[in-house]
Amino acid sequence: MEKKLSNDKEKSSNLKSNIMNVEIIKQLPELKNGCEVTSVAMMLNHFGIKVDKMTLAEKVKKDNTKIEYDENGKIIKWGNPDIGFVGDITGVSSGYSINPIPLLELVNQYVKGVNLTNLDYSYIEKSLSENRPVVVWVTSDFTSPQINASWKNNGETVTAYFNQHAVLLTGYDDEYLYYNDPLTGKINDKIEKNIFLKIWTNTGRKAITCELKNSK
Q1: Cβ atoms of residues 177 and 169 within 8 Å
Q2: CA distance 104 to 141
């Protein structure tokens, strides 16, 4: 019996786990399309940088290219999320998304941002183990991304997944990743790692965090 208890303790001590308590911020009702900046607000607040989502929504870089449709209602021209937020972040009119590089420009106004995009998943887990939450681009319900539209922006084709969503990863253990969802308002909701990895990969392996030090 003593030997079994000893083995159980050893097995338990080998389990990896780190889950943070990050205060939730909801994107609704003001920012229907603001999951990215709301996730950033949660991340910055966790580091003691008190900035609200509306300030970030105003300051974030935008691509103001007006949306254009063909005679069938198909989008043929709009902005590029690699340049800035596309469309209306409030949702009063059509809006889409923003990608890591221009969003990091916003983060860098407050603290040193770190781009984890296209890096191995282990970098995400390392950041979480260091109590650094991570903004990731996934889908709203962790189902496969659906290509809804594509359009041209200065000769470049932009492919859009309208079920794309950004959440803030807050921790992990051996089986799950934990996250704050700015859309549902759920705190430390969980998703199986294998499902996360599939959706995160299929949406472009986009992720950002920030350094613990060198805040401005």
Answers
A1: yes
A2: 25
Supply 91's token pair.
């949702």
Coil, helix or strand at residue 69 = strand
pLDDT at 27 over 60: yes
So what's the pLDDT on residue 147?
87
Contact 97, 135 (CB under 8 A): no
Q: Which 3 state secondary structure label does DSSP give 134?
A: strand
pLDDT band at 213 (very low <50, low <70, confident <90, very high): low
The model carries a pTM of 0.91
Pairing state between β 62-63 and 85-86: parallel
Q: Which of 103, 95, 90 shows the shortest CA–CA distance to 44?
A: 103
**Which two tokens mark 216?**
């401005």
CB-facing half-sphere around the CA of 130: CA atoms within 13 A: 13
Q: What is d(CA 82, CA 97) in angstroms, rounded to the nearest whole number? A: 9
